[in-house]
Amino acid sequence: MQSDVADLPLSHKLWAWFETNRKPALLGVALIAAAGLIAWILISQQQEKQIAAGAALSDIAANQMSGLTPRSDLVSAYLKVAGSYPGSSAGARALLMAAGNLFTENKFSEAQAQFEKFTREYHDSPLMGQALLGVAACLDAQAKTDAAIAAYKNLIDRHPSDIVVPQAKFALSRLYEAQNKPDMARDLLQDVERGNPYTSLGNEAGMRLEELIAKYPQLAPPPLATSTNAPMKFQQK
To answer: Dihedral angle at the C-alpha atoms of 86, 87, 90, 91, nearest 10 degrees?
Structure first.
């Protein structure tokens, strides 16, 4: 015959267990409560950090538009936000903005260092493609052709669906043409043109493709063959 304990409702069974194991149970409840409180504090702090970082980044844009922040101070302002709020989405954007401004100032090695820092610190960011394109463009601008080709290919191979991949393919086609590899350049330009119809980049790729074929006629597609088995048409007399 089963024991009386087995016939008790579930709530009674739990309470009986709790009474038997009161001290360990209370300790476990206390630990769970403490862990929940710590998690809540960390989440709240993270949210506050994200809000503060976003506000700091917005302040830079507002001050730039109003003329309070001269262009020469933009890089230091962005780097300050990136350094003050590491790990935040606004901090990531600030780091990219600093790198981009360094690039436009023709400070390619410094820009490359910041783009590479982004790839190390924000490897899961949806903006990773932009950082990798930045690294490749910096190498390209410094005439480090082999390294630039490898960087463009790395972006294309690792992030084939990223929004910046067409730009990387277009840039890589130019480097292949300079290395006397017109067939590889043609393939990339065709990809860009087909994948980006009715866009400025797609149109530019199409024009560049025409120029490439004019320079290397052997790249032109073969003419369509006419069928010799077509039935002949006779006129009625």
So the answer is: 30
For residue 21, give the amino acid letter. Answer: N
Query: How many Cα neighbours within 13 Å face the side chain of 9?
Result: 2
Cα(128)–Cα(118) distance, integer angstroms: 8
Tokens for 214, please give them: 């004019």
Mean pLDDT value of segment 193-215:
95
Q: What is the pTM of this model?
A: 0.70
- Number of independent structural domains in the chain: 2
Nearest CA-CA partner of 212 in 236, 180, 235: 180
Query: What would the DSSP string read from start to end of 126-150?
Result: TTHHHHHHHHHHHHHHTT-HHHHHH
Q: What domain range includes position 195? A: 164-218
Closest to 61 measured CA to CA, from 90, 31, 30, 18: 90
Q: Are residues 39 and 125 in the same domain?
A: yes
